[in-house]
Design a protein that fits this description.
Layout: E1 48-56, E2 59-67, E3 77-83, H1 93-103, E4 107-111, H2 129-143, E5 149-159, H3 161-172, E6 176-182, H4 187-193, H5 203-218, E7 225-226, H6 233-237, H7 242-254, E8 264-265, H8 269-272, E9 288-293, H9 299-308, E10 315-320, H10 332-349
Parallel strand pairs: 3-4, 3-5, 5-6, 6-9, 9-10
Antiparallel strand pairs: 1-2, 2-4, 7-8
Helix pairs in contact: 2-3
């Protein structure tokens, strides 16, 4: 198949010893993975990582997929599609959870969103819900092509903004037999109302700015961006929400990656601000697991979505006691607890 796997399926480096990165510095990892415990070498007896690319609506998508230890291409495996956070890339938290799921025996795929990361698309950093939802469908399309994937046992995991888009994708894509989110972030609600609904009085002003940005872009002018991150430590410390303070720390210091950015085209707000992750959420009839930190200032979005998900009788909220939003991305005890809940959920809902 053209446009598919750039890495040899079973092992890119036979005979090399497996190892774990001691830090989250992408420069120390041959696959540019930016999380603790990341794969550094591929051997058949361990979880392996494979880079891939495929076309989606004329745009080349960059992906990584992970195969379980002792992978056997003659077998069929359940698979999980993992959607990354807003501003994130496949080498960060989405890769961490994909690797951990592969350790539990799943094929797991994560890809950079179109217009973002290492994927194609111009202008850069477009962030429209329709694109992000299509990215999820596209990952399912791609991974389902392989004979060793059991397409009747396909699950979905969305993290942060990827969680909101996963809820939207699962409403109509019934290939996904089970849906889970971690620290779900409703991008439409936040871009429209502000975080914690703190900007309700400026909605029309921000819509006017987005409209002007669209007009300027359409006329061939400079593409305008929102969300640029260029703050001092002092400015970061004064931010009003844990998510933003800890998000800067995660994305710009401890788990930074050059393809990751907070910024998005201002014109994207025309689509974002009229969208909501809970619109038609009652169409989800699949089992639904939502995981969030008990101290996350984003918890209200998970609680709101779960309450509105009336189309499924199999739904559960798991709170990671003491965790904030960003801490679910990397703090070992919270990641371990989340993976344990995910494993129990997928084992039950994706059973043969």
């Amino acid at each position: 198949m053209k446009h598919i796997v750039h890495a040899t399926l079973l092992a890119m480096s036979l005979g090399l010893a497996a190892g774990n990165a001691s830090a989250a510095d992408y420069k120390l990892n041959p696959f540019q993975l930016a999380y603790e415990g990341a794969i550094t070498r591929n051997v058949p007896s361990e979880v392996n990582i494979h880079s891939a690319s495929y076309p989606l609506n004329g745009i080349e998508i960059a992906a990584n997929f992970y195969t379980p230890a002792n992978f056997d291409a003659s077998r069929k495996y359940p698979a999980i599609v993992v959607a990354h956070p807003n501003g994130g890339v496949k080498e960060q938290v989405a890769g961490l959870y994909a690797q951990r799921l592969a350790q539990q025996g799943y094929i797991a795929i994560t890809a950079d969103a179109a217009y973002q990361g290492a994927s194609g698309g111009q202008p850069r950093s477009v962030d429209m819900p329709s694109h992000r939802i299509e990215d999820i469908h596209g990952m399912a399309d791609f991974i389902s092509r392989f004979p060793w994937v059991d397409t009747s046992r396909l699950g979905l995991l969305g993290i942060c903004g990827g969680g909101g888009y996963s809820l939207a994708a699962a409403q109509t894509d019934k290939r996904f037999k089970a849906v889970a989110t971690i620290s779900m972030f409703n991008s439409g609600r936040v871009r429209r109302n502000g975080y914690a609904d703190s900007q309700l009085d400026t909605v029309q002003q921000r819509l006017q700015q987005a409209s002007q940005a669209r007009a300027q872009q359409a006329a061939g002018g400079e593409v305008l961006y929102s969300g640029d991150a260029n703050l001092s430590d002092e400015q970061i410390a004064k931010l009003p929400f844990d998510l933003y303070r800890q998000g800067y720390e995660y994305y710009w210091k401890t788990h930074a990656h050059p393809n990751s950015t907070f910024r998005y085209t201002t014109s994207s707000l025309l689509d974002l601000m009229r969208w909501d992750a809970t619109n038609q959420i009652e169409l989800i009839n699949q089992p639904l697991l939502m995981i969030a930190g008990s101290k996350a200032d984003s918890l209200y979005m998970t609680q709101d979505a779960l309450a509105k998900a009336t189309g499924t009788i199999d739904k559960q909220l798991v709170l990671l006691e003491g965790a904030t939003h960003i801490e679910t991305y990397w703090v070992p005890k919270y990641v371990d607890a989340a993976v344990a809940s995910l494993t129990t959920f997928y084992t039950r809902t994706l059973a043969p």
